[in-house]
Description:
The complex is a heterotrimer of chains A (about 280), B (about 325) and C (about 290). Chain A has 14 helices and no strands. With about 280 residues, chain A is mostly helical. In chain A, helix 4 packs parallel to helix 7 and helix 4 packs across helix 10 (about 195-210). Chain B contains nine helices and 18 strands. Chain B is globular and about 80 Å long. Chain C has helices at about 5-35, 55-60, 65-95, 100-110, 115-125, 135-140, 150, 155-180, 185-190, 195-225, 230, 245-255, 260-285. In chain C, helix 1 packs antiparallel against helix 13, helix 3 runs antiparallel to helix 10 (about 195-225) and helix 10 packs antiparallel against helix 13. Chain C is flat, with a radius of gyration of 24 Å. At the A-C interface, helix 1, helix 4, helix 5, helix 6 and helix 7 of A face helix 1, helix 3, helix 4, helix 5 and helix 8 of C. Chain A: Belongs to the binding-protein-dependent transport system permease family.
Amino acid sequence: xxxxxxxxxxxxxxxxxxxxxxxxxxxxxxxxxxxxxxxxxxxxxxxxxxxxxxxxxxxxxxxxxxxxxxxxxxxxxxxxxxxxxxxxxxxxxxxxxxxxxxxxxxxxxxxxxxxxxxxxxxxxxxxxxxxxxxxxxxxxxxxxxxxxxxxxxxxxxxxxxxxxxxxxxxxxxxxxxxxxxxxxxxxxxxxxxxxxxxxxxxxxxxxxxxxxxxxxxxxxxxxxxxxxxxxxxxxxxxxxxxxxxxxxxxxxxxxxxxxxxxxxxxxxxxxxxxxx
Amino acid sequence: xxxxxxxxxxxxxxxxxxxxxxxxxxxxxxxxxxxxxxxxxxxxxxxxxxxxxxxxxxxxxxxxxxxxxxxxxxxxxxxxxxxxxxxxxxxxxxxxxxxxxxxxxxxxxxxxxxxxxxxxxxxxxxxxxxxxxxxxxxxxxxxxxxxxxxxxxxxxxxxxxxxxxxxxxxxxxxxxxxxxxxxxxxxxxxxxxxxxxxxxxxxxxxxxxxxxxxxxxxxxxxxxxxxxxxxxxxxxxxxxxxxxxxxxxxxxxxxxxxxxxxxxxxxxxxxxxxxxxxxxxxxxxxxxxxxxxxxxxxxxxxxxxxxxxxxxxxxxxxxxxxxxxxxxxxxxxx
Amino acid sequence: xxxxxxxxxxxxxxxxxxxxxxxxxxxxxxxxxxxxxxxxxxxxxxxxxxxxxxxxxxxxxxxxxxxxxxxxxxxxxxxxxxxxxxxxxxxxxxxxxxxxxxxxxxxxxxxxxxxxxxxxxxxxxxxxxxxxxxxxxxxxxxxxxxxxxxxxxxxxxxxxxxxxxxxxxxxxxxxxxxxxxxxxxxxxxxxxxxxxxxxxxxxxxxxxxxxxxxxxxxxxxxxxxxxxxxxxxxxxxxxxxxxxxxxxxxxxxxxxxxxxxxxxxxxxxxxxxxxxxxxxxxxxxxxxxx
Lengths: 276, 334, 290
């Protein structure tokens, strides 16, 4: 039942909420607008809101300078690849924890989550040296492995909470119906958990896309993802605010759109199913 | 064929002993009901037979073959779950076909058997629906259909009717009984409802705290309960029990009289129990009187539907002397 | 409960995940600990051998360590404070009857999707730059001297950026929790004569406790390792004013090529994280029925 309120109250709340929301959104909006301005307009002492001389030259300049498409391609490969790899390892593990729990299951889950708490810097140096010796530095597959490892605990935890909601009866019914484990997982568990697996996938693609520690420290030119791409804009060279905005927009647009479309599934995933 | 033998079957979860030691013989084609209060181990026993749980000791024989360690899929049994456990992402047709698909049956055979099951269970017009588009009774039928197509040695039912409303429950009860008469396959049926047990079973196993209190036909249980527990559990409303002096008159530690085995009188009769009606439940066919008997406590009496007692009425009760059950100090029937 | 067979199967299914995570934890960590007791510099290859506690004395003894530790706590604490309190208020606001709720959610969550270096650069150049940033323009509009945020308030500026990124997360989690509060419970409270403030304290807040724990847990995991925001804005400066432990290790180990000292810093970072983790797991373990 919706609460009944008078129209003026509703108008008041609407205005207040939109004001706060737009304030939060302002940096993104401002970047969007600046990306289409000329450099001189972008840093003019009396700022303009809408671009006066609408231009796409910033985007061309960014591609020219740092090869956006190569970085974007790397980002896609690393984030999607690591998520799929994580799901392949994570689905069986989550199945085991959700449907054949032991006294230690909870401890193992907590331990897995605690690996996320280990600060990356604690292992940066050995990883850096190992990668150097194995010639994995600045490679896409090296980065994919790291990304899989850092997101695996989250993947398992999310899948676990989704799987827990599937009545164990149904899996037992499959067992009674003569299904081997493989068939039980492929024909019964996975189809039933599709929404959960989808939101796990989405959240992890986003987390991997935005990961900015390993991508920056372990790559330089070849395997750089968009986080490395954008970091190369951190030291200003000449007139650059508009180009920086264009680069920023290019870096966040794909995931922003993905996030907007999947917002509902994501929020549930983000809470590890703990908030209903 | 589908005879099931349990020999000294034990089950404990860690420290907690659920089933101390059970030996049972279920004949081929029998309809056996496991009945008992919640937590008595009846569902656990069923799951042990199904292979969904390991035994902690003892042997389970199916058709004389030791299946104690066999996985559920190999035992050739079919189970109908309390929650129906239908696959929500499959159509009714695919649900019923699933066990056959797992057994890699050829397509024509699958179609034929699904067709047969659908006809038997009146599911023909729902075959392409998803389970969530079905009513509770229809879901139950799909679950049974899924069990039928396997042509199992035995059917296992785990409280299959407890999620249905009262009217539907009576219907499904009849349908399952009919199905049994038609298929003549062994069925084990778990319930906490003694009415279901009495109406459906060839033989009933009464379980309490993991022990078999009695194993016999419904009427045997009603007429010759082995002990006070069975006497109290079978029959509705429950048997009335009396301890102390009144029992000692009959050379027993306690005696029991079923609600239907009393004669009622409005006028004082010497030597019978005197009481006051607290509540009279008028069902039309019967009237249940709850009577506070002097010195003996609250008793339930089943009277004729035409009796018109109300709250506060005095009543004199004469138990039918031939139908007084006597129990010793350990609760065993004498 | 299940059969022994299922349990054996379960262990096999869990093995790959457990093994890779164990390796991922143990091998590099053991190496970090090993290096932390070695003289190991990429610049000076002649310096080798066992170092004893020298690396630790060097790292912990340095005033930059204390400052980084304090900065880490301020960073985590500050962001948590802003996002939890701000998030609750924003969630309460968004939970009111209003027009365009769906669109509002999308607008509000947007900052969460912005990758850290972009967030940092947008704020640094588009907003906090004293010359052409939006805030500079705003200050000038009011006749004030524009602030050079990253030089004058480096740590505060980083907190603002990080809080901006995480406020949407907190808000949406709280909003989800709020919307799961049954209308009947609210109505019952209203019938019982509770006013808005009482309802907030006695009905809404207890209901939100669980989601607050979750927000704190998840955010802390990420906030302890804040890196990119510092790297692209202040570079940890001026001096060590905005260096947290994570960035300090990076500075010592990678930028100064002192593997030994960097590793010692890494070990200390792990210990600190563990202290926080144990503390948090205690609090959350009770709240999360895993």
